[in-house]
Amino acid sequence: MKRVDVLMEALPYIQQFHGKTVVVKLGGHAMIDSDTLDTVIQDLVLLHYVGMKVVIVHGGGPEITSKMKAMGKEPKFVGGLRITDLETLEIAQMVLVGKINDGIVSLIARFGAQGVGLSGNDGNMIIAKKISPKKVVVDDEEQEIDLGHVGDIEEINPELLEGLINKGYIPVIAPIGMDRKGHSLNVNADTAAGEIAIALKAYKFINMSDIDGIMNAGRTRTYHRLTISEAKSLINEGIIVGGMIPKLDACIKCLENGVSYAHIINGNKNHNLLLELFTREGIGTMIKKE
Amino acid sequence: MKRVDVLMEALPYIQQFHGKTVVVKLGGHAMIDSDTLDTVIQDLVLLHYVGMKVVIVHGGGPEITSKMKAMGKEPKFVGGLRITDLETLEIAQMVLVGKINDGIVSLIARFGAQGVGLSGNDGNMIIAKKISPKKVVVDDEEQEIDLGHVGDIEEINPELLEGLINKGYIPVIAPIGMDRKGHSLNVNADTAAGEIAIALKAYKFINMSDIDGIMNAGRTRTYHRLTISEAKSLINEGIIVGGMIPKLDACIKCLENGVSYAHIINGNKNHNLLLELFTREGIGTMIKKE
Amino acid sequence: MKRVDVLMEALPYIQQFHGKTVVVKLGGHAMIDSDTLDTVIQDLVLLHYVGMKVVIVHGGGPEITSKMKAMGKEPKFVGGLRITDLETLEIAQMVLVGKINDGIVSLIARFGAQGVGLSGNDGNMIIAKKISPKKVVVDDEEQEIDLGHVGDIEEINPELLEGLINKGYIPVIAPIGMDRKGHSLNVNADTAAGEIAIALKAYKFINMSDIDGIMNAGRTRTYHRLTISEAKSLINEGIIVGGMIPKLDACIKCLENGVSYAHIINGNKNHNLLLELFTREGIGTMIKKE
Amino acid sequence: MKRVDVLMEALPYIQQFHGKTVVVKLGGHAMIDSDTLDTVIQDLVLLHYVGMKVVIVHGGGPEITSKMKAMGKEPKFVGGLRITDLETLEIAQMVLVGKINDGIVSLIARFGAQGVGLSGNDGNMIIAKKISPKKVVVDDEEQEIDLGHVGDIEEINPELLEGLINKGYIPVIAPIGMDRKGHSLNVNADTAAGEIAIALKAYKFINMSDIDGIMNAGRTRTYHRLTISEAKSLINEGIIVGGMIPKLDACIKCLENGVSYAHIINGNKNHNLLLELFTREGIGTMIKKE
Amino acid sequence: MKRVDVLMEALPYIQQFHGKTVVVKLGGHAMIDSDTLDTVIQDLVLLHYVGMKVVIVHGGGPEITSKMKAMGKEPKFVGGLRITDLETLEIAQMVLVGKINDGIVSLIARFGAQGVGLSGNDGNMIIAKKISPKKVVVDDEEQEIDLGHVGDIEEINPELLEGLINKGYIPVIAPIGMDRKGHSLNVNADTAAGEIAIALKAYKFINMSDIDGIMNAGRTRTYHRLTISEAKSLINEGIIVGGMIPKLDACIKCLENGVSYAHIINGNKNHNLLLELFTREGIGTMIKKE
Amino acid sequence: MKRVDVLMEALPYIQQFHGKTVVVKLGGHAMIDSDTLDTVIQDLVLLHYVGMKVVIVHGGGPEITSKMKAMGKEPKFVGGLRITDLETLEIAQMVLVGKINDGIVSLIARFGAQGVGLSGNDGNMIIAKKISPKKVVVDDEEQEIDLGHVGDIEEINPELLEGLINKGYIPVIAPIGMDRKGHSLNVNADTAAGEIAIALKAYKFINMSDIDGIMNAGRTRTYHRLTISEAKSLINEGIIVGGMIPKLDACIKCLENGVSYAHIINGNKNHNLLLELFTREGIGTMIKKE
What we know:
Chains A, B, C, D, E, F: The record marks 25, 247 as: Transition state stabilizer. 6 copies of one chain form a homohexamer. Chain A is of the alpha/beta class.
């Protein structure tokens, strides 16, 4: 009977989210630990079956680094920035598209739904532009460094995604973009996920990472529910600082461009995703317009 | 966290039933007791939201009788059979279509889905034929009794239902049929529900009544899972007797005409419907082909 | 051969109305007299078959009153206003939805088309709000009277109607609305019909009642064709007075919200509907924008 | 009020024919006399507006002959058969497609519907094959005569017609076919109409000519209603003879290939078409399967 | 291998034009010389098969004149303007619709695609209005001359065309319009083609005539690529004069109403159409917005 | 002008193949040499633009082997068979899906069309079953060898492919299958391509490899056009031997299961694909049913 009560309590959320698009950025530990990933994918398949349109965007930085080392290729950094030469790009593509992406798709199948793995090359989905050289101080001297095959997103073509979603598939997207001449470029997964959420006019954008949510400077408090203006105040007042700020900014950009809710949750804890979506108080941070 | 476990355990059932049509006959106590009806409708709305196509057929005998008495019209019986004169038919229609049916539709709205109330007149859905007079022994004498405006179902036109289901409505059907000249006739709700399940090629036919399931003669055992052949054996061996037999026969007719599963459950116990569908052992009786 | 001439004379009207939506309010005597109703429904089925999209909204006040009395329930009025307690609402719903509405649907079937009976609960079609208490003078004292379960229409959701019309059904609508919590409310049938005509962007709104059309104060003249401005002048000049005014106002509201023509005709005279639509001079009153 | 009665009497026929396809062969006098043609087209537009899907196939022999003479081209006949050389074919095409066909289309527009004129070349609709030379006795000698650009129909491609019908156009077809190399050929209009009725699985095939219907040898009796077997008996018994036989055979071929009713009526009498379709006794000959 | 290189060079043009609508005006010599017409139609069928949506509008003045003479009807001119009496209109319709139009359709079939021949009567496509009498000086006296059944285009109804194009047919249109009462009128083919290009929001409007393109006054230079402003300058500076100006104006009207490119090419030279479309430098004149 | 002649000569082939599905297996040298691959992809994009529905299935064995070595993983063979342990599978997936597949997709974009890269995991497209251990003689002793994560294809689910093709994408498929529990398996690319051609009811199956076509034992003759029965005779008579036989068998299997034509061509020679398809004599081997 407990089962029944739970379902009944979940009903209002299920109704509210029915038919809505949810773009989920998968990152952090879940990309390396297969048990964690299993749970997350199972949760997403559940969301799919109770009526949401789920789109997954994943990262994979640590895995790329470890595979590069396994292949005897030393990652290069200049002034703290990673240099992506052609060989690095190839390894990144192999790891992101061939290993992580295709692996998520088969996990989705294992839990009973149907995924379709995509890179930004597919259907010209993510159009990007090689980023300009960055000024970096090396040995007390400012240098202009070409970061290589890395791109800023210029445009999302959502037709392919929309077609797949409407036929009941779960698209899984690797953060590879393409310039207008058809050359692949590494793009930032967080940015890609946000832009895709905007292009799809998603209801929710969910960023799953290794932190429990937006916290104050002393990490003594997690903010579970924030409006845009509250979030901005907390930043202005210096209460939210450091790495929290770009995460918040990405959420705010989504909300200011048509997405209704943005969430930041810790993907490493069992079923955090469901707890965040199906309980009133939530477990991570939810930001909404007002 | 329990909530999450429950949802995870429900997932395989949700997947299995996804997009499938379920025809539910609502009868018995639930037609009179509003708390019971609330729970049942809430369960059905949940089934709708997790992806099933729900169709409701309801009865209402006791309510008709009580309303007749309230209107000073004495129900007439000859040899145990109810006589449905024109006035009785009118009261039945008012109670079934105007009170019970429209009431269920507004309950569905209250729990967040959209219902459409129908009688068999709508879209020529239930075509029936006035039943022939019955031979009845009255005062030791056999008489032929005309039961009045009561019909046997000849044909179901499912187009209207299919159109509504595919647009996401929950059809709610009162057991009123129509003869080929456009005259209304009372039809048996169990039969109507079964025929509709067959016409819709439903996945499940669920009969909710006041009994816990199919039981043996001594009511010492409830059979939770039966195949058609097991059910027939139990009848032949005299283990299942009496009023249980027509209930079983109705289920078997469905199964032999394309329905995959038939269930008999007690609608008066809280959330029995979910327990029957979302647990392996079930709580009522499920009959399947083999 | 006369038959043929008539068809030829009807052709220009048939062409003009082809594929257009016509919302017809059925009221008055036709709701009680079955021969009158037969003729009206036959006319409407003809309109359907020559290509119009017919939507019927009906009233039923007198029938409710008579059924209340039959059930030993005395209609209550305070200061001339009817009080609708829960029991009254139940009787109204039974009469409107279970008797009149379902009866019209079977008549439509009898004349060879397919109707679908609806209340405002179906598909959340008529969203209403309980009306505020009215100030009434009783025994020389002003009192605030709660009229009970009566609603003002807030919103029409036309999707269900549009779906049914496009599949060739004739929707028949009882004047029952629903508040946002799923409670039924009695609504005014004239208002409901007008709002539905507006929501469907109907071509014609036809109000069938017991009067021959808009007449002057002395009832010496019937106005067959009026523009909005002519109608307003006649009111301002005191030529049209009394109960004619709200009827005209309802028509004007439709015309000012996208309906092309509004008609007021006497539904009790044989085939008035066809005479009004298929002859140049008409037989009731037609109001158009200019 | 007579108007109304007529409409009411027409209603059952309108219902019965609703949405059905009617292929009408227009021939004889109506092709030359513009008043007659006006009436016929008006009737067909009425059928269109009361819900039938009308397809017109027309002939035009006499008009071709008169235009040939006007152009100083003497029609050639050998042993009673017309020879169609290239020049004759060109004149036939100009008259049939450019004058008669386009003229019917503008008449349809004048009466308020939309026609689309077609030859068998359009959309590869009528695929024909040059007929083999005929043996003819000329001056007591048997000769093989090549009749020229005349074709037997091999295949009807109905896709273009179906597309136009479903969008509400009235297709008007000239009896020009095309061989598999794209050369135009004159084809028999009666045959073309019959084959098109079969290809469209039409409900009715109506042959409008200059005779009142199927008559006995002495022309003392017109048969208004016949079954296939009755028709065959009348032929076998020598009661129906001569030119009536090929007309009957064409109807029987339609009926044996899926058409439900075939009619032969005199197109020269005012509104015969409506009288045949909208009265029980009819005015020409109707043949049905049994 | 040369074949392959050519295909590869054509690829970028094929890509650019894919799915785009091209309205081609066929006129001049090609209407009389069957070899020239063969080549042009073959080119158009190729354009169709590599993915363009081709619409053909043709003229036929010389052919009408020669057929009139053959029929002993002398063309009448007053003050240089042709008078189109009813008989002339009939001949024009026969030649344009029955001979030229149907002939192009069978040519299209011969080269492997499917055409549909249309006049402006079909689907009420070209609505025109009889032109007003023109003032003409005859024998030193100004007279008002009624040019007869000649029309100015008022409106294009593109629905029929759009339906045919989307189903893969090549529409072929004769320059016959219809007034609002259903009377046919001769219309100018160049104007009809331009208006149809605008109504279809075509990508290209191509005018095939007997000149090589837009040339300067001395005919010493052909302008292959022009912008609207360049064209206007050349006219203003008196470099482009005479009959070139109306041709340019027609192109400019298209470009200012949504068409992207207008071309003027000589249809008498083999495959000029393909050379113009599939080479960078082109062979006639292409005008674009800027 | 040569350009134009070539296009005209290609037209009959373009017409014949229009709208037809072509499944192309890309293998051999083209998988390693980027210039060769460029040309092949350019050809395929041309086929796409002239109206064919192109589906690409690729291999990649040599690339996997070289990448394994680069990663310090020695390919293992027992008795001549490759052993695919988990690590080998991971490398294969990374190379096939992440490098080759995604690379082909970006090449397609570069040449102006839109590809979608897929593995058999996507949409549960290729369902396979781990192959049973093989008996192998090692050191004169027969052993049962488990080949590891290698699968035989059991079922193709073509829905995803069909959806993408109909929206104008070019699917690119890596030879990775999935067992019914969601585990990835290496599958043979030739077999995958053939099964996909059958599942899509393709018009053509084209196997591009490193040989010029089917040759006799002495490699003195290439057979350009063969029927199934001719091919079987040549095998039976010992004229075709060795590795040619499985290639022929794969083609024959396709032809016997609904594919119309099978081709074997050398993908390393410039534009062989177009020469094979667009010339009568062809350049490789074409096998058809009879």
